[in-house]
Amino acid sequence: MSEKLIFLSHITEEKELAKIIKDAIEDEFAGFVSVFVSSDGETIKAGQNFLKVIEDGLVNCIAAIYLISPNSVKRSWISFELGAVWIRNTLNQNAGLGDIPTLPFCHSGMVFKELPQPICNLNAIEANMASKLEFAFRSLQSAVGARGRLRTDFNELAAKVVDFERRYVLFDNLEKVFDILNLSKKALKEIKSKVQNNSSSEFIVSFDLVPTTVEKEVRDILHKIPNDLIKVQSEFLGMTVTANDSFPGCKLQVIFKMELLKDYFNKTASL
Questions:
Q1: Domain boundary residue among 167, 196, 225?
Q2: Count of domains in the chain?
Q3: What is the domain extent for residue 206?
Q4: Cα separation, 207 vs 260, whole angstroms
Q5: pTM
Q6: DSSP code for 120
């Protein structure tokens, strides 16, 4: 019997999570299912027409999973791939051929009440909860036509999702700190070169003068970052007058845990 195809829609930044879900599904339904993941380096071979392969996956899948985060929900590819399966499902229902399960996996801070139309009409799950993952796998089991007890350790799978979320959201907030500090790509490359092979436990970025609003914005972000991975020290300088402006200013030190910066730069190919 040929393997049935499950289409897994995701954005490139979330390919690590896509691989986690793909491996879990293929391990659970070994021999019955293959999971289409465009970023895995295997599904789309060198020289193949990228769009044509995706179209074939959307046409042939018996179920679809969508990784939905605050980042991915804004991307056109998610809407394109959702729309394709949505229409296929409607045509199947009209022809009496049964449903094509369409499962949004919410993660990294995406909550149900913030899901836009038409995704909010689907039965989404929280991808970091074992019971919800099991529910989704039951739906896939029905679509595949398999029976019996599921073998997946859903607590372990949920823990892997939580670990991904922690790092993914952490790096997103780290980049917000970089933006607030107005660190250019050149400045980040210089920091990266200083961080590599640095045995210190912390890395300090210092500013002799910034508006106090910058300090406040950084501190607001720090509430979302765990374990004191970033700290702030400041010294108020009073009202500052420049050629173009006047503002309350301060000296500012932003202290990063070295392990955080190393992990970030190791996973950021664009720097």
A1: 167
A2: 2
A3: 181-267
A4: 20
A5: 0.74
A6: G
